[in-house]
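Q: Predict the assembly, please.
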Amino acid sequence: MSLISAEIAGYLEKSSWIRKMFEAGIALKKQYGEQAVCDFSLGNPDLPAPPAVGDALRTMAENAGKPFAFGYMPNGGFQWAREALAGQVSAEQGMPVDAGDLLLSCGAAGALNAFFRAVLEPGDEVLAVAPYFVEYGFYVSNHQGVFKTAMSRPETFELDIEAVEARITPKTRALIINSPNNPTGVVYSREELEALAALLERKSRENGRPVYLIADEPYRFLSFDGVKVPSVLPLYPFSVVVNSFSKNLSLAGERLGYICLSPLMENRAELMAALTLTNRILGFVNPPVIGQHVMAHALGSQVDVGVYAQRRDAMAEVLSGAGYQFSMPKGAFYFFPKAPGGDDVEFCRVLMEEKVLAVPGSGFGGPGYFRLTFCVDEEVIRRSAGGFARAMAHFA
Ligand code: PLP
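A: Predicted assembly structure:
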């Protein structure tokens, strides 16, 4: 007698690579001590939250005894929080958005689930550009959708518009892109996004209903060397932006994010009403109270991105020094180098023998590569140089 569904049993059996590496890391650290292991497996932001976060919490503590300080609120978040956020999003996206175009959610993850619940018919397809954030597939099947992928261009990971077109069918309801990208660090150019928008306009007409473009942007704040992250909102009426405060304020555990509808979308009030309902009935009920106070107070501040930039340079030095092939990440906090020998799972196993933890690219739909996170101290990056060199020598 099975206690759980066959689908979830299957997921447990396959358990994600990130989790596997996380667990292997715990075992290695127990055996050899924390200091001996260089763990680049998890994207858990380690930089301290900016001081405005602590200030907001102290003010909240002073008001904690007031009635309804932690009460329910409208399912899409406090009106004052949405108004404050609208100013910031308008500046970031280079287009005026209104508080009514924004719904606050439990992280970007909650926003994606609320969106899929609102728009998918059973059997509708959602396409993601690979390599991709592995949770997308779970979120789509949570809502009876079918998850599909279209590969990006080899090595550069730029958008391959023909590959996307080849994967669109009459059942395609949405395309999800993530720029700056986890795991590749790529940032899509305005030209690539314009070409994508033109394709989706055409496909929406052919399909007789919108093919949504979801831009998942938790790393929008983190691009390097002056690279700009163009907005999709002015390019395509059926576009939505999903974002969160997990990375820019290092608030990943507090679960605050949002979804913003393109101001060009006609009749978008209907979609916003649906999202407000799905945010509620998925059991999120409303976004976290504390997160909203913190967010409103901390708008305009962010973690010290200079630290991430320095770590990126350190990691690039270590990898180049050991002879690895990679594209320099333009944004986010990941490297996605080629796995020596070509078999990413085997390579990560060898690397683990050197007590260096990475995640095989296969876990992101990018076999032949591996992912490294630079959410670790620069000292750990420097210390990993010997391990990377020996792992490379193993495949020479
Ligand atoms: N999208 C991408 C690309 C991510 O990397 C993550 C988290 O790592 C998420 C979404 C989920 O973020 P949140 O913590 O806001 O739910």
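The mean pLDDT is 96. Residues 43, 107-109, 133, 178, 182, 216, 218, 244, 246, 252, 257 surround pyridoxal-5'-phosphate (CB under 6 Å).
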